[in-house]
Amino acid sequence: MTTLPPGITEAQTLTADVEVGCDVAIVGSGPGGAVVAATLARAGLSVVVLEEGGAFTKARFRGREDEAYPLLYQDGGQRVTKDLGITLLQGKAMGGGSVVNWTTCFRTPDHVIDHWRTRHAVGGFDGAALAPHFAAMEQRLSIAPVPLELLNRNNRALYDGCKKLGWAVEPTQRNVLGCAYSGHCGHGCPIDAKQSMLVTLLPDAMQAGAAVVTRCRVQRVVFEAGRVTAVIGLAIDASGTQSTGVTVTVKPRFVVIAGGAINSPALLLRSAAPDPHGVLGRRTFLHPVTGVVGVFDDRIEGWRGAPQSAASHQFAQRGDEVGFFLEVAPIHPMLMATAMPGIGTTHRDTMARVAHFAAFLALTIDGFHDDVPGGRVTLSKSGAPVLAYPIAERQWRAFRDGAKALAKVAFAAGAKEALTGHDPPTSMRSDADLAAVDAAHWEVARVALFSAHQMGGCGMSDDAKSGVVRSEDLRHHQIDNLHVVDGSVFPTSLGVNPQLSIYGLAHLMAERLVARWKTA
Questions:
Q1: What is the DSSP letter of 150?
Q2: What is the Cα–Cα distance from 48 to 218, expressed in whole angstroms?
Q3: Which of 177, 210, 212, 389 could bond to 41 as cystine, CB 3.0-4.6 Å?
Q4: Percentage of the chain surpassing pLDDT 70?
């Protein structure tokens, strides 16, 4: 058994199997894993982080979609639900999803945490306990509101439209420092302005002695007598697809799984982790998204500027109906080409107008109604994750209501036309045409649906019959030295972008783990 030097080891360069010992093995280097790694390493614990994605620097981030999706996204940006109905955008790189997200930061709403306490037996913390940890991460990551005058035309259309309608709307907070507003956040920041884990907490961790192994796909964890005894990973080649045949084995005292929703439950399923109540992989949430394109006479050029700098939560809480919140997507050619319906000349003619498009999103809030329990992660024959996500009628109603709200915003902001994501799209010219939304085909594969926010699958609950981990320290109910610290532990979706929620929760839990493990 050996030790790894602090810093980055790229597993594709290893020529022989490696066996490593350490205090803590962390699977995943995104918002959960990086925060935990930095906190534990600074406390003097020996830390090894295993990351499936590659180690990239700003020099590799050239704003090219054809490079970014294969390099930086799960399944090359083509991850989908089992029925192909929802496209799942999920990061895969050193730094995880923080490398490619659109920098939007919200604290977890208090009413969400209250719901977890009353409905999901989450008693390990409350909003007051999380507040100083949110503040600490906001300071470290330079999280601050976007100045109103810096909203790009794409986001300004959402902001102005909501204001004219009398709806709540605000500039978002972003984790950036020295941002040049290039608009390429989703492709990796070319100037290191985005304060992702790649340039903040992971360097903090490595400076404190942590080792990070990239291009290492963790296949399973090994259990003996209710404890993890080993973590087994395979080295992956530089393409990020094929195993090199080299095995990386880590034998730690403690393990933190932080692979994100979908990947974390999949790893536990591959490992045959104890699941006596059948909850592992269930209640996986997506904030499923429908969109409306506003077509304007003037040029919007939504590929420029901060990609997501305004949001409205006017409809986030709707009682018996599924809530939704309104945001904006950047308009890059490949992203828009895959999102817009049609083929041949129809698609070409649509894309010819792309400079005049504003892309409005309605993100639906799943997990708060008994008939909207989210999806379930299982495994394919190869061991890869498969997400089945049935859409309830209550959600279809939210999609329709969300599309109508977006069309109203578009017209209030001055759009001459609004197009839904159907194939063919439903076209509206004014509020008088909104009834056409109800008449459209709201069915799987008849309308484009997306998710960039994956949550759940290893839900926390102090009731072992309802959750995979307990809420006090996110320790697995049946495995003494295994913890899950990422977005998979959320027992519902959040109703806000999840980035800051993961940072704050990870910071709180990491400090609790330090207090226990330093004396263990």
A1: G
A2: 13
A3: 210
A4: 100
Whether the CB-CB separation of 232 and 1 falls below 8 Å is answered with no
Residue 1 has pLDDT above 80, yes or no: no
**The pair of three-digit structure tokens given for residue 283, joined into one six-digit string:** 């209640």
Can 453 be counted among the known catalytic residues? yes
- Could you tell me which residues come within 8 angstroms of residue 219 by beta carbon, excluding any fewer than 6 positions away? 232, 233, 234, 270, 383
Per-residue pLDDT tens over the stretch 153-183: 999 999 999 999 999 999 999 999 999 999 9
Residue 342: the pLDDT is: 84
CA nearest 399: which of 358, 433, 362? 362
Q: What is the CATH code for 148-174+289-365+392-443?
A: 3.30.410
Query: How many Å from the N-terminal Cα to the C-terminal Cα in the chain?
Result: 22
Please tell me the pTM assigned to this model.
0.97
Give the pLDDT band of residue 140 (cuts 50, 70, 90).
very high
pLDDT at 457 over 90: yes
Q: How far is CA 17 from CA 24, 210, 237, 290, 356, in A?
A: 20, 20, 14, 46, 54
pLDDT of residue 520: 66
Is the bond leading into 424 cis (omega within 30 degrees of zero)?
Answer: yes
User: In the block, which residue shows the tokens 């050619």?
Assistant: 333
Q: What is the mean pLDDT of the chain?
A: 96
Cα separation, 504 vs 134, whole angstroms: 5
For the chain, residues classed under CATH 3.50.50.60 are 7-74+90-142+187-279+459-517
Per the CB < 8 A criterion, the answer to whether 190 and 61 are in contact is yes
Please give the structure tokens belonging to residue 434. Answer: 């909104």
Structure tokens at 266: 């999949």
Burial (CB count within 10 angstroms: exposed 0-12, middle 13-18, buried 19+), residue 259: buried
Instruction: List, for residues 294-320, the tens digit of each pLDDT value.
Output: 999 999 999 999 999 999 999 999 999
CA atoms within 13 A on the CB side of 495: 19
Fold annotation for 7-74+90-142+187-279+459-517: FAD/NAD(P)-binding domain (3.50.50)
In the chain, what are the helix, strand and coil shares in percent, each to the nearest 5?
30, 25, 45
d(CA 323, CA 301): 30
Q: At what angle do helices 31-42 and 499-517 cross, to 10 degrees?
A: 30
Secondary structure class of 87 (helix, strand, coil): strand
Active site residue: 287, 453, 476, 477, which one? 453
C-alpha count within 13 angstroms, C-beta hemisphere, residue 131: 5
Alpha helix segments (H runs only) across 381-472: 393-412, 435-439
